[in-house]
Design a protein that fits this description.
Layout lengths: L19 H8 L2 E6 L7 H10 L3 E8 L18 E5 L2 E4 L3 H12 L5 E8 L11 H11 L4 E6 L9 H15 L9 E6 L11 E3 L9 E6 L2 E6 L11 H6 L3 E6 L7
Parallel strand pairs: 1-2, 1-5, 2-4, 5-6, 6-7, 8-11
Antiparallel strand pairs: 3-4, 7-11, 9-10
Helix pairs in contact: 2-5, 3-4
């Protein structure tokens, strides 16, 4: 298998500067494919590319327009237009899963990891089945490439400090690239929206929340309008929703689907 490092995680941790593991990673640079579902010009992907560049070479391949919520859509019935935006930075007129395919099979066949995000908004619990951010990493995992999907939960309105998200990405990447994944599995990571600027969140390994969002539809002006409050969703203790909403970094290992007997 292409993934080859480390041991399974056993709990949360704190960051205390450049560790011995980071030093060893810098001695053996890795190759990262970087994608998202918010589009090639989104701030989250710039932060992600900058963060993983600390550990090796980064090639960006993202949708040319936002494709949020497209799930695992792929395009096989038409050509995909590849546009170059600078050195090792590309977009295609396709989906995040298309980006994973093009990246792994065409742009960088020697990539070690794929990372996706940082999504503008959470991808917690059942969101992983609808998220384009997560679908890109899932597609790469099926192709034999381990990966991490990153999302930034947003609750407070207004401007957002992406620089702190970048610091958290570095912490998580440093830890997860040292951990071995089962074939076909990948990581899903959600960062909290912290109002306490003095608090540094822990990295917590946790399971998925399987409760659905609370939602309803209202009929107005001859059409049905969706209404749901993301922050009011169910949050069983210890689930990824509960960890993220409580102010820590939720890290979940997603295993490949199994075939029903």
């Amino acid at each position: 298998p292409r993934w080859r490092r480390g041991m399974q995680p056993d709990g949360g941790c704190h960051y205390h500067g450049v560790s011995q593991s980071l030093s060893s990673l810098l001695e053996t640079p890795m190759r990262f494919l970087v994608t998202n579902d918010d589009g090639v010009h989104a701030p989250g992907i710039a932060i992600l590319a900058e963060a993983v560049a600390q550990f090796g070479a980064a090639t960006v391949i993202a949708p040319d327009e936002p494709a949020s919520g497209c799930s695992h859509l792929v395009n096989t019935g038409r050509p995909l237009k590849l546009t170059e935006h600078g050195e090792n930075r590309y977009s295609i007129d396709g989906s995040p899963a298309d980006c994973a395919r093009v990246g792994a099979l065409y742009l960088d066949t020697d990539a070690d990891w794929i990372v996706s995000g940082v999504n503008h908004g959470g991808n917690l619990g059942v969101d992983i089945f609808m998220s384009g951010t997560v679908a890109a990493v899932r597609e790469a995992a099926w192709l034999g490439l381990p990966g991490i999907a990153f999302s930034q939960y947003r609750k407070t309105p207004g401007e957002f400090d992406w620089s702190k998200t970048g610091r958290w990405v570095s912490r998580v990447v440093e830890q997860l690239v040292e951990d071995e994944l089962p074939p076909g599995a990948f990581w899903n990571v959600n960062f909290p929206d912290l109002t306490d600027e003095g608090r540094e969140p822990q990295i917590v390994f946790c399971g998925l929340e399987y409760g659905h969002l609370q939602m309803e539809y209202h009929h107005e002006d001859g059409a049905l309008h969706y209404r749901g409050v993301y922050h009011d969703r169910s949050r069983n203790p210890g689930s990824d929703v509960d960890v993220c909403f409580s102010g820590d970094i939720a890290v979940t290992q997603i295993l490949p689907q199994t075939t029903a007997h």
